[in-house]
Amino acid sequence: MADARRRVARLLGATDTEIVFTGGGSEADTLAIRGSALAARSRGHGDQVITQVTEHPAVLEACRSLTADGFTVTQLPVDSHGQVDPADLEAAITDRTVLVSVMTANSETGTLQLIQELATIAHNHGAFLHTDAAQAVGKIPLNVTELGVDLLTVVGHKMYAPKGIGCLYVRSGTTIQPIVHGATQEGGLRAGTENVALIVALGVAADLAATELAAATIRDVLHEELDRLLPGVIQLNGHPRDRLPNTLNLSFEGVAGKALLAATPQLAASTGSACHEGVDSPSAVLTAMGLSSDRALAAVRLSCGRWTTTGQAHQAADLLAASYKAMNQT
Ligand SMILES: Cc1ncc(COP(=O)(O)O)c(C=O)c1O
Predict the structure, then answer these.
(1) CA 233 – ligand 1 centroid, Å
(2) Mean per-residue pLDDT over the chain, rounded
(3) Are 276 and 202 found together in one domain?
(4) Ligand 1 pocket, 102 CB below 6 A?
(5) How confident is the model at residue 214 (pLDDT cuts 50, 70, 90)?
(6) Residue nearest to atom 5 of ligand 1 (CA)
(7) Residues 65 and 112 in one domain
(8) What is the 163 CA–ligand 1 centroid distance (Å)?
(9) 204 lies in the same domain as 241
(10) Do 131 and 239 share a structural domain?
């Protein structure tokens, strides 16, 4: 466990004692949000938390739970690329704000948030900054000191570790209390007998991630090929530049994304994030970006894995283009 803690800390530029292992991302988010908000308030520091509209439910629901404890929760909007405008945080933050929680990268579009700027604003007002980095860890270089964050969530299964393991980076000196009470494991922040096997797996995954960060090349081949095969049909959803190198969220003019994927069973992809699979309504992430319901329903979220090849990107583009053309003939 000590070795795994060292490996995870090294991936994030943290020190070993700042890593708290948890049973996955939802628990790490809840510990960050409830743990820091309740600890701050018990010291009389305030009663407002600020988050943003395209967060994962683990963050949105943890924030919402605080309303029952008397907190005010403010949700910032995003622009058409899915980014929070730091000026909106500046306008919303008050001396009662104890925590700002904004994800590093969005699950559905890959859009990156301006975390450094948001952290500076939070700190200028005496608030902590939490970022859910589930989608970003292991894909882009991340350093907690450069980012300036106080709390950062890592989710094992997003970086090739098993499901059911994650961790929270807690900057030394951050006031936070446990949400799982009991004995003194994990520096008193997460009681319970440790799942050593999964912790070791997360450590190994962290080491491998450090040497195999994602490259945008193959994702871009897929994008260019689709554009070539289906001219004028696809529109990119998300930030054209500031986004994860493996993610490609596209709307296909005039078809339902779900039907397009159903017609392409050779491809493992989803219309939104896997966590919301099975939901037929337009993606809340895309509609929060101001996309019409039709364009949001036409969206497909494609992502490349660590072992995806250029040949597979060509094959995927061919398959999707063939399905699209067949659907438009009938
Ligand atoms: C951004 C983000 N945060 C949190 C989670 C929740 O993690 P877990 O399923 O390990 O609780 C996920 C999905 O797994 C996610 O994509």
Answers:
(1) 32
(2) 95
(3) no
(4) no
(5) confident
(6) 25
(7) yes
(8) 10
(9) no
(10) no
